[in-house]
Amino acid sequence: MGSWLGTVRGVLPRRVTIGVTGLARSGKTALLTSIAANLLAAGAGLPTLPALTVRLGGRPLGVRLAAAGAEGMPRFPAEDTLAALVRDPPAWPERTRNVSLLALDLTIGTPAPLPDRRVRVEFLDYPGEWLLDLPLLGQSFAGWSAQVLRRLEKLPQAHDFLGFVAALPAGAGRDEALARAGHRLYAALLVALRAEGRALLQPGRFLLAPEGAVPPWMEFFPFPGSGPLAGLLRQRFAAYCAAVRKDLRDPAFGRVDAVAVLADLLGALHRGEAAFADAAAALGEAGRAVRGRGPGGMPAWLAGLFGLGLRRVAFVATKADHVAARQRGNLAALAGSLAVERGAPAAAHRASFAVAAVRCTEDVVWTLEGHPVSAVRGRRRGDDRPGRSWPGEVPARTPGAEFWAHPFLDLPDFEPLRPPLGGRGGVPHVALDALLAFLLEDVL
Ligand SMILES: Nc1nc2c(ncn2[C@@H]2O[C@H](COP(=O)(O)OP(=O)(O)O)[C@@H](O)[C@H]2O)c(=O)[nH]1
Ligand SMILES: [Mg+2]
């Protein structure tokens, strides 16, 4: 077992913080809900997390939700999100917007005369959109603008916004109404692109604004000019970056020991080549952000978010219950190969997983034109009976043209399987135990 950075050998950590990040709808809320329910059930002696049980090797485990005390970080509403899953019919937990923390107190039995070990394990729900803001910190307004405008040129959806920018003279005046109009067009474009499954969208806080009234410095957009309007937008870009840096100084981020980067890769495969390329790029940005080296050698303190002390990075393809067990190895390999291709950290312990935090399906074998096919069976929301689904073969690495010639089939909106014992028996999952065993390895 490795000792943690900053701890004397043999002295085990008292507190471990694990960042859970990914774009909206990548499955963060589902994952935290399942972690809470399954760890609590494991603490009650139920066999919900076999890989952890193996790691514990017979030592008893106690788990309870930690008291919030007077901390500044909002708590993840684990009881409410689990309540949704045990409703009849089961429902998905509602969206959460801001950073929140799931804190659990673990007690790990130790043979006498040593005292039992107590560890506080914290999971930090961190929006991936905000992670995509980290690369901005290493860029100038002019450099960022040029990069974004180049990327937009190829997109027909960007026509209106690009037309607006093109119509502005390079030396346009310092006009707040113009800045606002441009910002609105640009923000609307980001929302439209996201609706089409695009992922690499910056600034991230335009898509997921922090709570409260929108400050004036949010109102900027990429602009190549050099006159007074460009000056105003540059100042606002700088203020935005300063706000991002200020967020990063939250003490919770400084002590992140491990990170799980979540991505809905099956959804990206379904949406097609462009959406997939974008998801891969976003995963790469996230990987670089947690490594602490952005494009252009971002200094490590900027990535203080998940910087110093970060020992473990897991790349997690979520919603893996859409495909049968035989495809999940490829799905995990795909997440891993994307992370490597895009330059994710090599120094930290790194692994990739295909996980379903909240399992909706069972594996079945289905005979298709005389051949057995591994498929899954689940109940689509609103249907009264379960049906079979077979989305297609999952590639183990970035697929080539031949893959995109045949569409990756639809991913039904499944209803979660009913959690046993009204939630006290954990939440059915796929490979959550392997992910937890990796993230918590230094604790167990
Ligand atoms: N089949 C399946 N769907 C999932 C799973 N996890 C999440 N989803 C779906 O993805 C949606 C978004 O998940 P959520 O956890 O809210 O994502 P977040 O925005 O990252 O917090 C859910 O409402 C479900 O429809 C899973 O393990 N299996
Ligand atoms: Mg959420």
Report what the structure shows.
Helix content is 36%, strand content 16%. With 444 residues, the protein is α/β, with parallel strands linked by helices. The protein folds into three domains: 15-131 and 250-359 and 416-439, P-loop containing nucleotide triphosphate hydrolases (Rossmann fold, 3-Layer(aba) Sandwich); 141-247, no CATH class; 362-396, no CATH class. It has a seven-stranded mixed sheet with strand order 2-3-4-1-5-6-7, with helices on both faces. Helix 2 runs parallel beside helix 14 (432-439). The longest helix is centred in the middle third of the chain and has 21 residues, at 228-248. The model is unreliable at 1-10 and 292-304 (pLDDT under 50). The site of magnesium ion has 4 residues, from helix 1.
Strand and helix layout:
Layout: E1 15-22, H1 28-43, H2 50-56, E2 61-65, H3 78-85, E3 100-108, E4 117-127, H4 128-131, H5 141-153, H6 159-167, H7 176-195, H8 228-248, H9 251-254, E5 256-263, H10 265-271, H11 273-291, E6 312-317, H12 325-341, E7 349-354, E8 361-368, E9 371-378, E10 387-389, H13 401-405, H14 432-439
Parallel strand pairs: 1-4, 1-5, 5-6, 6-7
Antiparallel strand pairs: 2-3, 3-4, 8-9, 9-10
The structure holds guanosine-5'-diphosphate and magnesium ion (MG).
